[in-house]
Amino acid sequence: MSSIKKVVLAYSGGLDTSVILKWLEEIYQCEVVTFTADIGQGEEIELARAKAQGLGVREIYIESLKEEFARDYVFPMFRANTLYEGEYLLGTSIARPLIAKRLVEIARETGADAIAHGATGKGNDQVRFELGAYALNPDIRIIAPWREWDLTSRQKLLDYAAKHDIPVEHKQGKQSPYSMDANSLHISYEGGILEDPWAEPEDDMWLWTVAPEKAPDQSTVVEITFERGDAVAIDGSAVTPGQVMETLNRIGGANGVGRADIVENRYVGMKSRGCYETPAGTILLKAHRAMESLTLDREAAHLKDELMPRYASMVYNGYWWSPERKLLQQMIDASQEHVNGNVRLKLYKGNVILVGRQSETDSLFDERIATFEDDAGAYDQQDAEGFIKLNALRLRIDSRRKNK
What we know:
The chain is of the alpha/beta class. The protein has helices at 15-28, 46-54, 66-79, 96-110, 125-136, 154-163, 241-254, 279-295, 298-317, 323-335, 367-370, 383-403; strands at 6-10, 31-38, 60-64, 114-116, 141-143, 179-182, 187-190, 220-227, 230-234, 237-238, 259-265, 271-277, 341-348, 351-358.
């Protein structure tokens, strides 16, 4: 401990990280640098500055990373149509590599000896933060207080805060019983009654989406323009990646789109039940797959689908900065050269309904060949007979063997 003189702490300004700040000073006898990132969580991050200043922190980093998060992390992941275990859009997972990167960079800028985070010893985030940090700086030292201290309950944290004069905001009204994480891709809920997989989430838990049964009776039509697999315009207006997320979250949430209730397999070995709101991600996934259906070669599309679960596991388990993820990303990005055009969707009471797709320059859909009407010789149907017989040859040989 004596060799650590300065630590960069991922700091939210809440109870946990405020206690961690003081605990690091007390146990490690070190200076603490705080880092707070706005990645679209919808909270006033400047409050963290005032809190850190009140606790005597001299070096405070407050950064808006919404555009970088969407452009360099969310969008590359969606080029792969990524779903973990068929359902989870990886909203928490994909944010951790960016935070790990900035922790390592700030440690280098400030001459810090270590970084620290507030992830618990039971969850995935400790793995994601630390694998990312080690990949970017193999010699970095990492402090994970939840694996070291004995402050294992909220009451113990509150007692520690009172003992060390750490201000704790007591919000008016009912306090949320859930552990929540939010960014521009999603908001997650864990704990409370959700620890019973049979219990239905309470109606007032959901913050971003209206209940589908309470959504408008009229559908909302949205058109998304893609260039090289990325959304670049909504309803004809150019938008940045960050604006894509903000706009689709708002429109989708108003129509009850994006709710998910999942029991997932954590990397550390346990099953965990969580609920998620991911309006923009739900819309983007549907739209991107529709754009690929028109512009991506069949075998390239099927290969992407085969590799996607592996890619999803890399993101979920914290291997964003790994050689294998980078290699796979190159292949995915190369596949997106011709994924250009427009997709039209209807949002209605929790549903994302595809109603049209077009690509003036890159469509592989040939009406002359696909038509049920006279194709004027574009496709010779007699060719199918030989195609079928050749593909049936091994099946016929196998059948004759069985019938001997």
